[in-house]
Design brief:
The protein is built from 14 helices and two strands; from the N terminus they run ββαααααααααααααα. It has 307 residues and is mainly α. It folds into two domains: 99 residues, Tetratricopeptide repeat domain (Serine Threonine Protein Phosphatase 5, Tetratricopeptide repeat); 159 residues, Lysozyme. The protein has a two-stranded antiparallel sheet. A hairpin with a 2-residue loop joins β1 and β2.
């Protein structure tokens, strides 16, 4: 029988989706230190993203997604993720309660010296003899939100743009990898690019968008990137972190996405979304809900996907 300990909240640590990035103040701007992530830092990022889905902090609450992400971190030895999974299964938080699976994860953490996990293990009984399915599956642990793998393969002139993106993007709450994917699809890193519709610069800002996000010099690489990042930040909030909708809106406009309640039936836009997803590799991205209210059509879009 479960004791009162299980009615308590799990150990909560400050949510820090950007804890892997070091910041310093310079010249009135926040600049991200360009540092390579260690495995521990990547695990911390994964665990924090899982926690955001567990508690609905900055994203729509999604217990199944939280378990999926925690499982990846747990498989690669993160004791906090192991403990949190044990707590979720022990309490049936959004998923069916299973004491034996909870015990399996508490046992994993306890073997790494986690004392709270040892105490919880005594409450839930014997661990399952079968390894939880999620621990046997292939995962995306090697996902690099900074896009370091893209930078490593880039031509020198492209790399200069990418390094600027890596410095600026965290200030806007945007993964550099997503911004790089957009720049590649929009201009292929050409700061002088102009489209037939007069979209300009690296992130192909049309004059209306440039004005909307206070870009005075669209062919200035830094101004253009800042404007594009501001627009991506807005779109991420507007479409609640849905990468496919954000990509479609960046290409065709948020009005078109709302009109068709999803990705518009334009060959160009559908191809564009595919290219972004191939580079970014994830369906969702953390977002700041304080930036704007979600699309009035978002729920209709979500309902259509469930049909």
């Amino acid at each position: 029988m479960m004791k009162n300990a299980l009615s308590k909240l799990p150990r909560l640590r400050p949510l820090a989706l950007w804890s892997i990035v070091l910041f310093s103040s310079w010249g009135g701007h926040v600049v991200a230190a360009d540092v390579a992530k260690s495995s521990a830092e990547r695990l911390a990022e994964l665990r924090n993203e899982a926690r955001s889905y567990e508690h609905g902090e900055g994203v729509t609450r999604n217990p199944a997604k939280a378990v999926e992400l925690y499982c990846i971190a747990a498989k690669h030895g993160d004791s906090e993720a192991q403990y949190n999974l044990g707590w979720i299964y022990a309490n049936g938080r959004g998923i069916p309660r299973d004491d034996s699976v909870a015990a399996y994860f508490f046992d994993m953490a306890a073997k790494q010296g986690d004392q709270p996990a040892r105490r919880m293990l005594a409450q839930v009984g014997e661990p399952s003899s079968k390894r939880p399915t999620c621990l046997t599956q292939l995962d995306t642990f090697d996902f690099d939100s900074n896009g370091s793998d893209i930078v490593a393969k880039a031509a020198p002139d492209h790399r200069k743009v990418m390094e600027m993106v890596m410095k600026l993007a965290p200030h806007y709450g945007v993964y550099p990898r997503l911004a790089m994917a957009v720049i590649r699809a929009e201009s292929n890193f050409n700061p002088a690019a102009v489209s037939p519709k007069n979209a300009q610069g690296l992130m192909q800002l049309i004059p209306e968008t440039a004005e909307r996000f206070n870009v005075k010099k669209p062919f200035d690489p830094e101004q253009n990137i800042r404007g594009g990042l501001a627009y991506l930040r807005w779109l991420l909030a507007y479409f609640k972190g849905d990468v496919a909708l954000v990509a479609a809106a960046y290409n065709a406009g948020e009005g078109a996405v709302n009109k068709y309640a999803g990705i518009p039936p334009y060959a160009e836009t559908q191809g564009y979304v595919k290219r972004i997803r191939e580079i970014f590799k994830r369906d969702e991205h953390p977002f700041d809900p304080s930036i704007t209210s979600p699309s009035p059509e978002y729920q209709r879009i979500a309902n259509r996907r469930l049909m």
